[in-house]
Every structure is written in structure tokens, then in C-alpha cells.
Design a protein that fits this description.
The chain contains twelve helices and 36 strands. With 695 residues, the chain is of the alpha+beta class. Among the domains are: 150 residues, Neuraminidase; 40 residues, no CATH class; 261 residues, 3-Layer(aba) Sandwich (Rossmann fold), CATH 3.40.50. It has an eight-stranded mixed β-sheet with strand order 29-30-32-31-33-34-35-36, with helices on both faces. Strands 1, 2, 3, 4 and 5 form a five-stranded antiparallel β-sheet that branches. Helix 7 packs across helix 8.
């Protein structure tokens, strides 16, 4: 063998060895910068194009960059690869087609301004342009002759930047309002999560009203002058009426009832009428294609099962019959509604166990039954049908794959994956699957969870496990991409995540079983789940158990480490809750506690204290990393501060990480640098306490 061939063989061996090492590496925190996020698919009316939003992470600029991309279709099949459609130097998103498919509207950012722009699709290229009078998300009339949208009425008056800083109903006197730069507050909701500044008194805000503009632009006409915000706008098929929803009690901060209503406005007369005279909340109106029926969502009171309702309409666009319940025996929570072309079948989305799928119901059946359309251990979303209903576009994600773009027929058959943006970098990583596990608690309820084994797993070795707890509590983990889980797997740990009682996607009774019993009831679900993991996975070391979660999951992390100090060797609590009384007084959602705990703190003082982790903090032993965002007004900073101070004074190993410029959603939508730093802190904290301390 020649020297050259020997050298070539040597290089090949190095490359193969390096590739093998890379593949064994598993997901790293900084892989977030490589991830491409696909969302908002919209298929053109003729089924020839799919527009969608493609989001990348600009590590250097610490930002997200969004572009609208296209996938061309020919005879229902992909014609070439997806391609960029919008200017790469601008951030664009939210594609929406005009009824004839010749125009695509987008949300386009120009500096600090985000505006609605339009692009002609009948010819390649072309500069995005604005339509006179349209500066909000357009809602096209079916014939394309008009565009409706909602916004605050424009005014020529320039508002004082301090308007509303001093409440107009304040009794205390301001000596010099030109010098006073503080706040005088008399309203409840003076702060809001993810809003940096305090919210001025609501009296200064104009309400969003319904506007219409000709389809080719023009002077907008304001159709409403209501004392509440207009929303959820939809047209009648003949374009003669617009339906919308609004809450006439939205300014009553102490109102605890559900009071949203649906209204109809006749464009000829300009008159509007309340459509449904019923208690509770009516929302999400959808008119059938033939204009004969309306569907909507009805919730009688907070915590009640949301129902999908349907009723016939008369010639004046008003209800012609008593509403009929379509989802009476169906125990899931309905999402978006969409009529089929036959004006008989209605589609809706919902979470079901660990998945998200599309469903359909026959609205004219005497005994309507909800039928599941799509299947599989995955979560589908953003469904979009072509006008002839032959093609359907949507996104799909599962436990090992970020969301990509898919195409099928209307029944979900003949499915094709159209995008594959993440496969290249994922091929260089080992990603372990999530394996379902089930167990039963004392009252006979079955609980579901998933287990991911360590990337470096070898039979016979011993490994730690981290219990991950979701937020909410009325949300759910499932078959979707969670980078944080795979980062821990790559660091040599089992990851166990659960959907305890209180989670959505398992029926209404399951979802609200924890009311008044947060922690008290669901601690059993978590602890018996760990026992099930120990039994099913004998390589899990029961002496090296970590626990982590955010929001409600942070509350449960604090709760479990206080209630079961001998079980947990380390903890990470993010945007957590430690004291329900202080949470009530500082959060932007006091109504959450009012309902979940059957009253205000002065009405249920013992319950608030009994369910607060601080009531048991003297038993905590687990080294704890506390992560909180400076501008989190959902679970405010004092919740993390109290937990830190109590643990520090008790000499429990504790670190407190306070992230600037971030709110409650840091782990999902925060600055990329902060989000990735958070992943690394979680990885390193658990690796130190669960892996290195065992060496």
C-alpha cells in the first residue's frame, strides 16, 4: 500500500470516528440556534401554493428572523423544493390569501414598525406594498370586494405620553402633574405579563372598532361605536353582514362571570344586534358557506365544559331556531372551528391525551358524534383547506422532531412531508425516543407520562432521572419537540415527564379534578409515577432523582421538595409560586386563584396557606436552582425571592438566577441568548448534583 493510500485510509478513519462521536453527542443547549421553526401554513384557494412562516435564530443579533416561504404544488404533489418568498432583509410572517388567490397579505416589520403589506402572486417577485386604509390583519369578504379589520379609531390628537399615569378618579391630589413621573393607580390590572411598562388607567384607551375598506384600498369606514373591544370578525357568505364578538363587561374588573357575546351588523342599515341572548360566554362565530347556519363556542361559567353550538339563521341573519349542542358527550376542549363546503359538517381541533388532532361533527345529525380525522402520536396544527377541499396543509411535530410542513387530502390520507429543514443538523445528534408509561392512582384514575433514556445508555449502568412537570396546570405534555428534555438526556440522565390530574387533553373532569387541591391531589400522581419508572427501568437510581418545572410546574417543584424531602437530590424551579397569598396580591391573574381556590384569600385563608409551599419550606433539603424573569408579572419575582431567602437562611444549597428583559414566557419566546443560557444552567445544575456527585 502506498503512503498516499495509507494516509487517505487514516483520514477516512478519523472522519468516521469523528462522525460517530458527533452522533453520540446528543442535543446541546446551543443547538437551539440551529433549529428552524415552521408555522402558519396557508394553502391558496386553488391549491397551487402553500405559504408558511419559517423562523430562524440569529445568534449574533440575539433575535428571531421570520420569512414567508412558499411550496408550489402541481396536481396535489410538491413541485420542487420550498422557496423563500419575502425579502430576506425584512422580518415577515402571518401569510393570508385573498379570496381569488392573487394577493398574499403578510405582517412585515420595517424597523420598529410592523405593518400589513400585500404581495401580488400572479407574477414572480414584486415589491410588497400597502393598501390605503388597511393597517391591521385583513378579513376579506368572500367575494374579495371588501376588507374588514379591527383597530382603535385614528385621531389627529397626539396623546400625552403620561396620559393615564394619574388615575382620573384618584382622591389624592397631585401637586404638580408636569413634574410628577410616578403612578397613581385605582384599577386592578395595572400590569400585564410581557409588558415592560405599567398599564395606564383604562379610561385613556379607545376601544377597537370594526372598520371596512374596499378590496383595492381606500378610506376606511368605521361601522361600530361600542364601549368594548370588537373581535373575532367573520363575514356572511353574501357579504351583506359581519358577525363579531365582544364583552360588554370587560371594563368591570370585579366581574367574575363569563359575559362575552356574539353580535351581527347589517352593512346596508349599519345596525347591529345581539345575536344570542344567553348566560355565559359565546365566542368564535363561524357562518356556514350557504349562510344558513352559525356555529360558535359556548362556556356557561368559568370551569364549565366548553361546548360547540349550532343554530339556523333567518333571512335577516338572526337565529331562527333554538341552538343545538354538538359536543354534549364529547369530553375534550374544542379549538378552532371550520365549516366544510357542504354546510353540514363542522371541523374542530383539540388536544387528545399527548396528541393534537383534527375532528369533525355532522351538525344535522339528531345524535351528533365527534369523529377524529387525523391520527398518530404527534401534534398537528394550523390546518388549512383548499377551496375545493381536495388538499389540506398543516404542521406536525413529535417527540423527536420539530414541526415541519405536511400535505394530505381532506381526510388526512395520502400524507406527504413537504419540508425537512431540521434533518441535517439532527442527523449529527442522537435523539432518544419518548416511551409512554402509565400508572394508576388510588381512586382508579390512570395517569400518563413518557420516559426518555440517556443518550449514553448502557444496560447495567446506573443513571439519575429528572421528573419534569408542565405549567398550567390545565395544559399537557405530549408528543411534541422539547429540546430541554433531550439536553438532559444528552447529559446522561433519564427524563420522565407527566400529565397528572389537572392536565388538559384527558377530559373535563380530569382537568378540573385538582380544584382546591393543588399539590395535595396531584402529588400522588407524580410520586406514584416515579415508582412506576423505578419498576419499569431498573437502571434508574432512586437516590439520584431531580425535579424541575415552570409556572405551575415550578409550584409543584417547590411543593414536592418540601413534602418529600427524602426523595429528591436536586431541583430547578422556574417562574414558580411559593406563597399563594402574595401571588394573589402581585400577579396579573388574581382571578385564577379566586376560582381555583373557591374564593379570595380572606375567604379561604387556611386553604391558601395550606396549599403554599412556604408552609412546608423547613423540610426542603434538595439543592435548588431558582430561575425567574425580572418582568414576569404572571408569577412575579417575589415568589422566587421568598423561596430563595427561605432556603438561603436555612443553608440549603441554592442559586438564584434573575433574567433581565424577560417575562413569563422566557423558555418559549425569550431572547435567544437568555433562553439558551437557561438550558445550559439546567443541564449543568443537574449534571453537578446528579452525575458528578456520584463519581
Amino acid at each position: 500500500m502506498t503512503r498516499i493510500s495509507i494516509f487517505s485510509t487514516f483520514l477516512l478513519a478519523i472522519c468516521l470516528f469523528s462522525a460517530e462521536l458527533l452522533a453520540q453527542k446528543g442535543i446541546q443547549p446551543e443547538d437551539y440556534y440551529k433549529t428552524i421553526f415552521i408555522s402558519q401554513p396557508e394553502i391558496s384557494p386553488d391549491g397551487g401554493l402553500i405559504a408558511f412562516t419559517r423562523t430562524t435564530i440569529d445568534e449574533e443579533e440575539n433575535s428571531r428572523h421570520r420569512e414567508v416561504w412558499m411550496q408550489k404544488l402541481s396536481d396535489g404533489q410538491p413541485d420542487g423544493e420550498p422557496f423563500r418568498f419575502t425579502d430576506p432583509t425584512r422580518s415577515s410572517s402571518s401569510p393570508s390569501w385573498s379570496p381569488d388567490g392573487t394577493l398574499l397579505s403578510i405582517q412585515s416589520q420595517r424597523g420598529d414598525d410592523t405593518s400589513v403589506r400585500f404581495i401580488r402572486v400572479t407574477a414572480p417577485g414584486g415589491e410588497a406594498f400597502t393598501l390605503e386604509g388597511v393597517d391591521r390583519t385583513p378579513v376579506w369578504s368572500p367575494d374579495g370586494e371588501w376588507i374588514a379589520y379591527v383597530r382603535e379609531p385614528e385621531t389627529d390628537e397626539e396623546r400625552d405620553r403620561r396620559a393615564g399615569w394619574i388615575a382620573p378618579d384618584a382622591v389624592s391630589n397631585t401637586l404638580d402633574s408636569t413634574r410628577f413621573d410616578g403612578r397613581v393607580i385605582t384599577h386592578v390590572y395595572y400590569k400585564r405579563d410581557n409588558v415592560s411598562n405599567w398599564i395606564p388607567h383604562p379610561s385613556i384607551y379607545d376601544k377597537r372598532q370594526l372598520h371596512i375598506v374596499p378590496g383595492d384600498g381606500g378610506e376606511p369606514e368605521i361601522l361600530t361605536d361600542l364601549p368594548f373591544h370588537v373581535g373575532q370578525v367573520t363575514w356572511s357568505p353574501d357579504g351583506s353582514r359581519i358577525y363579531f364578538s365582544g364583552d360588554p363587561e370587560e371594563d368591570d374588573e370585579l366581574n367574575r362571570e363569563m359575559t362575552r357575546n356574539i353580535y351581527m351588523i347589517d352593512l346596508d342599515s349599519g345596525e347591529y344586534e345581539l345575536l344570542i341572548d344567553a348566560d355565559g360566554s359565546q365566542s368564535s362565530p363561524e357562518i356556514s358557506p350557504d349562510g344558513s347556519r352559525i356555529a360558535w363556542q359556548q362556556t356557561d361559567e368559568r370551569g364549565a365544559q366548553s361546548q360547540v353550538m349550532v343554530a339556523g339563521l333567518d333571512d335577516n341573519g338572526l337565529l331562527a331556531e333554538e341552538p343545538k349542542k354538538l359536543t354534549g358527550e364529547w369530553d375534550l376542549s374544542p379549538g378552532n372551528l371550520h365549516w366544510r363546503n357542504d354546510s353540514r359538517h363542522l371541523r374542530l381541533t383539540a388536544l387528545i391525551r399527548g396528541n393534537a388532532h383534527l375532528f369533525e361533527v355532522d351538525t344535522r345529525s339528531d345524535d351528533p358524534q365527534v369523529r377524529q380525522i387525523t391520527e398518530g402520536d404527534r401534534r398537528l396544527g394550523s390546518f388549512s383547506l383548499s377551496d375545493n377541499e381536495q388538499l389540506m396543509a398543516y404542521t406536525a411535530t413529535d417527540a423527536v422532531t420539530p414541526a415541519e410542513l405536511f400535505l394530505s387530502d381532506a381526510e388526512g390520507s395520502n400524507e406527504l412531508q413537504l419540508s425537512d429543514f431540521n434533518s441535517t443538523w439532527l442527523a449529527e445528534r442522537t435523539v432518544k425516543p419518548a416511551v409512554p408509561i402509565h400508572w394508576t392512582v388510588d381512586d382508579g384514575t390512570e395517569i400518563e407520562g413518557w420516559v426518555i433514556e440517556p443518550v449514553d445508555y448502557e444496560p447495567g449502568n446506573s443513571y439519575p432521572v429528572v421528573l419534569k412537570i408542565h405549567g398550567g396546570p390545565h395544559t399537557a405534555y405530549g408528543n411534541t419537540w422539547f429540546q430541554a428534555f433531550h439536553v438532559l438526556s444528552a447529559a446522561g440522565m433519564y427524563v420522565f415527564y407527566t400529565n397528572p390530574r389537572g392536565s388538559s387533553a384527558y377530559g373535563h373532569e380530569f382537568m378540573y379534578a385538582t380544584r382546591g387541591q393543588w399539590g395535595k391531589m396531584d402529588e400522588e400522581d407524580q410520586m406514584k409515577g416515579l415508582d412506576a419508572v423505578f419498576e419499569a427501568y431498573p437502571d434508574v437510581d432512586p437516590d439520584r432523582v431531580g425535579v424541575a418545572g415552570g409556572s405551575y410546574g415550578g409550584f409543584m417543584t417547590n411543593w414536592l421538595t418540601a413534602r418529600f424531602p427524602d426523595r429528591f437530590a436536586a431541583a430547578i424551579t422556574s417562574r414558580s409560586i411559593s406563597n399563594w397569598e402574595s401571588m394573589y396580591g402581585t400577579s396579573d391573574v388574581p382571578q385564577l386563584m379566586q376560582w381555583e381556590f373557591y374564593g379570595d384569600p380572606w375567604e379561604q385563608r387556611e386553604l391558601y396557606r395550606d396549599l403554599s409551599p412556604l408552609s412546608y419550606v423547613e423540610d426542603v433539603e434538595a439543592p435548588t436552582l431558582i430561575i425567574h424573569s425580572e418582568e414576569d408579572y404572571r408569577t412575579p419575582m417575589p415568589e422566587g425571592e421568598q423561596w430563595y431567602m427561605f432556603l438561603r437562611q436555612r443553608e440549603v444549597p441554592v442559586e438564584f438566577v434573575r433574567y433581565p428583559r424577560s417575562a413569563h414566557g422566557l423558555s418559549r419566546t425569550g431572547e435567544p441568548w437568555l433562553l439558551v443560557d437557561r438550558l445550559e444552567r439546567q443541564r449543568s445544575w443537574f449534571h453537578y448534583w446528579l452525575v458528578e456527585q456520584d463519581d
